[in-house]
């Protein structure tokens, strides 16, 4: 009998055993009654596949282009915080795992390694995207620049390829299980270098650290003025917001419900994807998806419904807990192998062959 993880879910136990209960709940849980968290994964099962045969699938090319960068597979890693709680090499190990398979990574603002060190480890070959939340310090700051401005400049200097603005977090979601088990307290030696500013740390001041709930579409102009990097909006779930995003000139829309951690009752991302794809049709805005992607067929379904790429959140943390860089690589390799097999079984030799007619939509 084979020992060790075979499918992506097999990796989850390693994060569970390694974490204290509050940290385990921090990584695992969703908001409120966790409907959306559960539905993200379940919803993929409602879409069935319509395989096509006799199409010569002996060679399969999984590569794609994402914002002009070539990736060897259409599966990247999401921004998620506190990789230092999972592995001592934290986001550097994650990024190296991503680099080893030729993919891309979003870096959380709440990472435990400086963005410059991550870029030094894997850029420029590996496209890195800096995730951004905006705080209430844009007008009432006591420094020359806001945190966002300062971070965006650092990101540009380090050679990142884009800014991922998280829009689904005007306030923090209600993590009930997280609250029940008490706060996940970081050890003192775990730092958040993206908040270390000249002369101190943003983390010292709670009012500065409040997420800015007044953010609007007009603020995209403000962000646009700060940077020439492509702007990706993460957390869009409706055609209305997708159309507005196209009008506002963003480069990509990342369909996400924050892994079920923000609004419980929001749709599963695979269910929200078609209306977003429809709304951007005719523009050159790219669409990505995350949330509940655990199998090669999940990736195939998302691509068939119009996503250019998918991203994994928790599975990357599970792989990191399993074996650092090698563990992240192993998770991505399993998904790559499963996607390649699913492509063969549905008659696809390239990503362009993965079209909507492969999908049997769920009955309404
Ligand atoms: C522990 C954890 C921390 C996260 N931190 C962030 C974050 O700092 N910024 C962000 O935009 N999304 C964050 N996310 C959401 C992920 O980017 C992503 O949307 C989600 O994990 C995808 O769902 P999945 O975990 O089912 O793959 C976090 C998710 C988890 C599980």
Automatic annotation (TrEMBL):
Entry GO MF terms: (S)-2-hydroxy-acid oxidase activity; FMN binding
Presence of keyword Cell inner membrane: no
CDD domains named among the record's database cross-references: alpha_hydroxyacid_oxid_FMN
Positions bound to FMN: 108, 131, 166, 234, 256, 258, 290-294, 313-314
Domain of life of the native organism: Eukaryota
UniProt record similarity statement: Belongs to the FMN-dependent alpha-hydroxy acid dehydrogenase family.
Protein name: (S)-2-hydroxy-acid oxidase
Species this protein is from: Patiria miniata
């Amino acid at each position: 009998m084979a020992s060790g993880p075979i499918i992506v879910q097999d990796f989850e136990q390693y994060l569970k055993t390694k974490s204290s209960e509050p940290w385990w709940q921090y990584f695992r849980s969703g908001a409120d009654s966790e409907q959306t968290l559960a539905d993200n994964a379940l919803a993929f099962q409602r879409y069935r596949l319509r395989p096509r045969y006799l199409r010569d699938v002996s060679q399969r090319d999984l590569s794609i282009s994402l914002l002009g960068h070539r990736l060897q597979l259409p599966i990247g890693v999401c921004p998620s915080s506190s990789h230092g709680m999972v592995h001592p090499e934290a986001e550097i190990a994650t990024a190296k795992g991503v680099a080893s398979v030729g993919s891309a990574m979003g870096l959380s603002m709440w990472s435990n390694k400086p963005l410059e060190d991550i870029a030094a480890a894997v850029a420029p070959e590996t496209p890195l995207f800096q995730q951004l939340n905006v705080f209430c310090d844009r007008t009432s700051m006591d420094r020359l620049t806001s945190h966002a401005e300062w971070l965006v400049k650092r990101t540009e200097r380090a050679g990142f390829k884009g800014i991922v603005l998280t829009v689904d977090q005007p306030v923090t979601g209600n993590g009930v299980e997280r609250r029940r088990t008490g706060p996940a307290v970081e050890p003192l030696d775990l730092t958040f270098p993206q908040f270390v500013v000249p002369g101190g740390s943003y983390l010292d001041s709670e009012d500065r650290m409040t997420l800015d709930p007044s953010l609007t579409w007009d603020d995209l102009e403000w962000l646009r003025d700060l940077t020439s990097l492509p702007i990706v909006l993460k957390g869009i779930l409706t055609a209305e917001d997708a159309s507005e995003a196209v009008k506002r000139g963003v480069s990509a829309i990342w369909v996400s419900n924050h892994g079920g951690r923000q609004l419980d009752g929001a749709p599963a991302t695979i269910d929200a994807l078609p209306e977003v794809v429809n709304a951007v049709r005719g523009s050159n805005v790219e669409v990505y998806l995350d949330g509940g992607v655990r199998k090669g067929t999940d990736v195939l379904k998302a691509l068939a419904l119009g996503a250019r790429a998918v991203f994994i959140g928790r599975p990357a943390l599970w792989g990191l807990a399993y074996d650092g860089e090698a563990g992240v690589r192993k998770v991505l390799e399993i998904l790559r192998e499963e996607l390649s097999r699913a492509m063969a079984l549905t008659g696809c030799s390239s990503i362009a062959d993965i079209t909507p007619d492969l999908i049997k939509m769920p009955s309404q």
